[in-house]
Amino acid sequence: MMSAARETSALPAPPRPVEAVLRAPVAITAMGAVSAVGYGVEALWSALSSGKDGIRPVERFSTEVFSVHTAALVPSTQFTQGKKTAELALEFAIFAARGAADAAELSHRIQTGHVRPDRVAMVFGTSLATHPEGIFRLAELTADVISAHGPRLTISTACSSSANAVGLGRDLLLSGVADVVIAGGADALTEEIFAGFHNLGLLNPQKCAPFSSPPGTTLGEGAGFLVLERAENAQKQGKTIWGWVSGMGLSCDAYHATSPDASGSGVARAARAAVRDAGLTPLDINYVNAHGTGTEANDPAEWRGIVSVFGAASDKLTVSASKSIFGHGQGAAGVLEMIATLLAIQHNSVPQTLHHVGARPRCPVDPVAQSTPRPFQVTHALCNSSAFGGANALVVLDSPHFRSPDRAVVKRDVYICGVGAILPGVGDAKTFSSLPTGAKLSGPIGDQNLPKTLSGIDMRGFDPLSRYLTIAASEALRDSGLNMRGPLRDRTGLFGALVRISPASAHELQDSVNERGLLRLSAPAFTKVVLNASIGACARAFSLRGPTTTVTTGNGSGLTALALACDHLALRDDADVLCVAAADELDRDELPDQMCEAGVCIVLATPEALPKSEKYPVRLAGVGLAGPGQLALAVERAFCGSGFTIEEVAHLPALNSTVIAPSSHPLLNVLSAAVQIQQGKVKAALISNDSGSCSIAVLLSNT
Fold first, then answer.
1. Is 159 annotated in the active site?
2. Does the N-terminal or the C-terminal CB of the chain have fewer CB atoms within 10 Å?
């Protein structure tokens, strides 16, 4: 790639033309599921309608040493027998995704030319599922089975993963990246996960009884996927519409690694954002499918959040919790609960809450506490999901007959106003951007070089990934000149990108099991082995309470997070600043020259939030997203509407140095380009990346 030096101006750019973009509901045209109550959406409705749950004694592994012996496992059949537990999440995902795709006649539509495979995207949410090559491979393998050759994005925000994925799937449709999106998630219950939740004291010795007694949750597993399409496409092709996805809200509690903010303010922020995104008011919502884990801390916190949003109307608001039926499906929980909601809506009812024997304090008095669904006409439903790391994702679903309004929003410009990085032997981002060509960076950063505290932040309990992210974010926020106090923290979010959990935390957990057994595994280490744990730690360090997500697309995940963050800021009104951060940590079993440890953060801001500065910030002039092996298409999309032509902009060198950092390297490209644009060395730069999951292109300019 070549660099292009161009004359720059110190004057601010002239006002840009206003661009209106349509925000509209997208149709749900098919569903697929597997859960503790059986295989397929029919089995799920059969259980709902008959009042049966899927909670039973665990047979897959021994629970003899534990005080809890039940879970909501997918029924054992030839489908699961003989499979390693680590393989089950993929098996569940393929079953549910294939069921959804078949119900939507996707294969036939592809064969007849009504849908192009490269216009079919997949957004896959998962919490603790694994794959030897990285959890992003689950999305790639599942997408291959159903011929989804558009972008394959993996979202891992613990138990809110699949809800987050469904909301993102809508955004991909509205941005024109895809014509069909398969969105949902999958997870399987392992002995280690069971032990981790047990040691945290979160399991119910009986059956999960949300908002009732005894407190505690019942772990589950399974998979669920929705087929999403734009309204005009679904109607033109005569597809059955099960409902509409009309809004999503994200937030971060920035409070604790596992416990929710007791005030419920995180849930409330996400709920308000989701309702506004749908073009509705809280009074338009007449049903809430609650996260309802049944735990002592979660239920009251969620109810406080609901009351904060709905006020006096919350006393008459219909609320229920589906985890009482098929357990806590981990990363798949959100989408399974959406499917339960949609099935009940089709039958003019709402799902029930089983096992309720009387409300606990600070909980809804009547969460549809009965054995079968309650007759009720839903207009607009709010589906709640919360997670470890404080990641909340709430989605608004419309009844097929009560579609939320289309609305035009003004697309906001997005700027880079701060950058930060930590690398082996490199002092700061500016130093990195001026390294001589060919300089190679590899190996560990070295714990001896890291501060234990940072501007009052105690990082002694942080694993290396968390420290790298926090140090890079600190430098980037300082570079931005933003005053990160007061209300701005509620409107500043964090989009993270990682290819794997912290190897140090993974070893700490495994070492504790080897030394003390599952019953006494390290609970603190267990809380760190969800992919978003380090992102949550970074958000807590700076009290960033705005939208949060964690994305992984394999090599170059950081650039994917940047593109998603840019679109979020441009098209939504729930944030003014987003930090985009990625990090890489060397495993103790890897050779130092095989990988470079790194942490990098880019601060994005809308014009309203930009600090007053003599330097004009770098604008994200365009972003493009496409399927794997479609880099030219991603570049074309980045230039569309940017005001530039491909001939006017040359790629900057990938990096002045060689950096082998799977998550961070393309985001380091962006950092280097931004610094050079700010220094007046170049006018515009294109940074791109292609992985097995997707192709990304980002265009930066000084105007």
1. yes
2. N
